[in-house]
Design brief:
mainly alpha
């Protein structure tokens, strides 16, 4: 029996491109998450003013990986919709991205709002810092 991708060479090339782009976008999304995880032990104990200075480094790149990741994974899912042994791992990966987004919107985003993206220093900044740092350690992107 011939695999569906072997029957149509153009489709196989499209799938390879979609997979490559999805892996690349996932790497872009996971890179900052890994950086957050590795920085956590060094940042969690910083005094308030130093911590707020370090937070300024994150401005402007929060959507870089997630948008590309969702678009490319959705494209890969659409291209493999008739090939269940390829489709289900992609759906599982998309579910993981959705889970990470839930962590972001439930824990990280409210902290960003409370601190105006770390430009306002509220009295409960230490609790907000813990919330922000540990939510980043559990999700993968933002």
């Amino acid at each position: 029996m011939v695999a569906p991708t072997e029957q149509r060479p153009g489709r196989a090339a499209g799938l390879r491109i979609a997979y490559f782009c999805a892996v690349l976008a996932t790497g872009l999304a996971l890179g900052p998450a890994l950086a957050h995880l590795f920085a956590l032990p060094n940042k969690i104990g910083l005094p308030r003013d130093e911590y707020f200075v370090t937070q300024l480094a994150y401005r402007g790149w929060n959507l870089l990986g997630i948008v590309a990741q969702v678009v490319t994974m959705t494209a890969a899912a659409i291209l493999t919709r008739r090939d269940s042994h390829l489709l289900w791992p992609i759906i599982a990966a998309i579910a993981c991205v959705v889970g990470a987004q839930l962590v972001f919107w439930i824990f990280t985003y409210p902290t960003n709002v409370a601190t105006a993206n770390w430009t306002v220093k509220p009295d409960n900044w230490e609790a907000l810092r813990r919330n922000w740092e540990y939510s980043h350690a559990t999700d993968r992107q933002t």
